[in-house]
Write a structure and sequence with these properties.
Elements (H helix, E strand, L loop, with lengths): L1 E2 H12 L3 E4 L6 H9 L4 E4 L3 H15 L3 E5 L3 H5 L1 H10 L3 E7 L24 H5 L5 E4 L6 H13 L6 E6 H5 L1 E2 L18 H17 L3 E5 L1 H5 L3 H11 L3 E3 L14 E4 L6 H9 L2 E5 L5 H4 L11 E6 L14 E4 L2 H12 L8 H13 L16 H11 L5 E4 L3 H9 L7 E3 L10 H11 L5 E6 H4 L6 H7 L3 E7 L4 H10 L18 H7 L3 E5 L5 H9 L5 E6 L12 E3 L5 E3 L11 H6 L10
Parallel strand pairs: 2-3, 2-4, 4-5, 5-7, 6-7, 9-10, 9-12, 10-11, 12-13, 13-14, 15-16, 15-17, 17-18, 18-20, 19-20
Antiparallel strand pairs: 1-8, 21-22
Helix pairs in contact: 1-2, 3-5, 3-18, 9-14, 11-14, 12-15, 16-17, 16-23
């Protein structure tokens, strides 16, 4: 006989789980005790359940395995929801195990009454999380734990990955069961099988399109990383020799010095990437859900002259009311690339060297980091900072970033080297993600050095996790990008409301503390970068310092994200949304036209 909570923990250990992120609570007391006495799993204590959730995401993204979170009933589960949603949008496998009040005082024991609450601190967490999880179930019968746990693990890690949730009432946690008599899960219920015959047929269609294409391009998406197919992608590119552009979550798939790398795409991206995408006549999108941030709000103009081939493991993504694919392939990115590579090895395809040279010229003409950024003397420009920081990285450096400047500017200006990882959450893009995710990533990376990039506004959302860094002595180099508030909101309000600022700066209600003093209060080493003088030397000194370091970077207050997509005010007062290729600051119209191989979307 074994206690249910012990069974859960032992099963996770046998599955290969090494860490669980948690905050203890009375409703999860048996789960807490079982994790505490397990010698094969280390429990990591955060100071907020949101942080535990985001740490588990960072952990899962780095080791590409299941992250695990344990929380208590009521507020414990509710606090984790922000992290759950980010994993739902970005396809990250995380298992949540929550404690719950005893069975007889759960709302599920009397559903006909439509009560708001029955048990103490109870919330019907399963029905709360169902819309943002792949699977959620309360374990009412102790003998169901074998089926429920196995199903949760399988569903989280198969098909399109994502979060799952198991709610375990306290009396079920404490119940004794015979492992041999547990109800078991048949994974054939949820198995996903690729139709190989159909896949081969669709690949033949792609080959025919390639044979007549003059300007093909591959979009490399996050699904390639999820399926561990990044090396296969490079092999396919080497064989095809066609340009490739990267997405926000696919940022680290292609080294910046790769001969075929043409840029990064999206509403805040690189001119070269968007010019290449928009001028193409064939787009092969692999493992990208092509969200609105990537294809713009004017999606009808997305690669408008191109045939579009979309490969996605989620069939629903292929039916979205945005892009209408000419060829839709419901398949794992790795399965597709494997089959595609076999097929193209047997045939002769055209040379696209002239097209490649055209894409290279766009990169030369339109660098993201402009000369004037480097000339600042009294503060630091974020674009220059990101360029120099990434230049200082070793080949295997791992970076975690929050929302706003921390990841947008790195996405635009960062230099990617082979085997590097850059982790951020794109779909939810929550402030407060950076520090907890870096903690999880550090544990997954065997407590090796981690770079963490956080805006001053973002770090305030989970600043308590500095204690977690100190407690575990994690060698995280945290760069706090201080722009005196919420720069993204400042830019929006400046553009749309005649410069009136509300709740985004010190003058409008949002002030920031002295981060150096705060870090020192947590007994952490501190550095402050206030100018660009000897910037590379300053950064290298921090990166070479053992243990955790908190560095505040004083950014220039008046920068904008550039280039980026924006609306244009017309003389008649109307506003139009520009297509992806026409980014702000707007190019001279003759220069812009010289970069277009297809007709303009419209004349503005």
């Amino acid at each position: 006989m074994i206690k249910v909570s012990d069974y859960i923990v032992n099963k996770l250990a046998r599955y290969g789980i090494k860490h669980v992120f948690m905050i203890s609570g009375g409703g999860a007391m048996h789960l807490n005790d079982s994790f505490g006495k397990c010698t094969d799993i280390q429990y990591i204590c955060n100071h907020h359940e949101q942080a535990s959730a985001m740490a588990a995401e960072g952990y899962a993204r780095v080791n590409q395995k299941l992250g695990v979170v344990c929380v208590t009933t009521g507020p414990g589960g509710i606090n984790a929801l922000n992290g759950v949603f980010g994993q739902w949008t970005d396809s990250v496998p995380v298992l949540y195990i929550s404690g719950q009040v005893k069975n007889e005082t759960t709302l599920s024991s009397c559903p006909e009454l439509n009560l708001r609450q029955l048990g103490d601190q109870e919330v019907d967490i399963v029905n709360v999380v169902k819309p943002i999880t792949k699977y959620a179930e309360i374990v009412k019968n102790p003998h169901e734990i074998g089926r429920v746990l196995d199903k949760a693990i399988y569903i989280a890690t198969h098909g399109r990955p994502g979060p799952v949730w198991i709610d375990v009432p306290i009396d079920v946690q404490a119940a004794m069961v015979n492992e041999d008599h547990l109800i078991r899960y048949d994974k054939s219920e949820d198995a996903i099988n690729t139709n190989i015959t159909e896949l081969k047929s669709k690949i033949d269609e792609i080959i025919e399109l390639l044979k007549i294409s003059k300007r093909p391009v591959i979009i490399a998406g996050h699904g390639i990383r999820i399926s561990n197919a990044q090396e296969m992608l490079l092999e396919v590119l080497e064989k095809l020799k066609i340009p490739v552009v990267t997405t926000i979550n696919g940022f680290d798939l292609i080294p910046s010095n790769n001969n075929l790398f043409a840029g990064r795409i999206g509403t805040v991206a690189t001119r070269s990437g968007n010019f290449v995408l928009q001028n193409s006549d064939l787009v092969i999108s692999i493992g990208s859900r092509n969200n609105v941030r990537q294809i713009s709000y004017n999606w009808e103009y997305f690669a408008r002259a191109a045939k579009k081939v979309l490969i996605d493991i989620d069939p629903i993504e292929l039916k979205k009311p945005t892009i209408s694919p000419d060829i839709a392939i419901n398949a794992d990115a790795g399965d597709f690339l494997t089959a595609f590579k076999k097929r193209i090895e047997k045939i002769q395809l055209p040379s696209w060297q002239n097209w490649i040279e055209w894409t290279k010229k766009r990169k030369e003409l339109y660098p993201v980091v402009l000369p004037e950024y480097k000339e600042l003397t009294e503060s630091v420009h974020p674009y220059y900072f990101m360029e120099i920081l990434s230049k200082c990285y070793k080949d295997d450096t791992l970076t975690v970033a929050g929302n706003g400047t921390a990841f947008l500017v790195m996405f635009q200006a960062g230099i990617v080297k082979k085997n590097q990882r850059f982790i951020w959450n794109s779909g939810n893009a929550s402030m407060g993600y950076d520090l907890p995710a870096a903690i999880g990533a550090c544990f997954a990376n065997n407590k090796k050095d981690i770079i963490c990039l956080a805006g001053d506004g973002s770090i305030m959302m989970n600043i308590q996790e500095l204690q977690t860094i100190y407690h575990y002595q994690l060698p995280i180099k945290l760069f706090i990008l201080n722009n005196d508030g919420y720069i993204s909101i400042k830019q929006t309000q400046t553009n749309f409301f005649d410069g009136r600022l509300t709740a985004c700066s010190k003058e409008s209600g949002v002030s920031m503390p002295d981060f150096i003093k705060i870090a020192e209060a947590f007994n952490l080493s501190t550095v402050k970068i206030e100018t660009q003088h000897n910037l590379e030397e300053q950064i290298r000194s921090i990166l070479n310092t053992p243990g955790p370091v908190i560095c505040e970077v004083k950014l220039t207050p008046d920068y904008i994200f550039s280039p980026k997509l924006t609306s244009e005010h017309l003389p008649d007062g109307k506003m139009i949304s520009k297509p992806l290729e026409d980014m702000y600051p707007f190019l001279d119209r003759e220069e812009f036209k010289s970069n277009m191989l297809i007709p303009e979307a419209y004349n503005g």
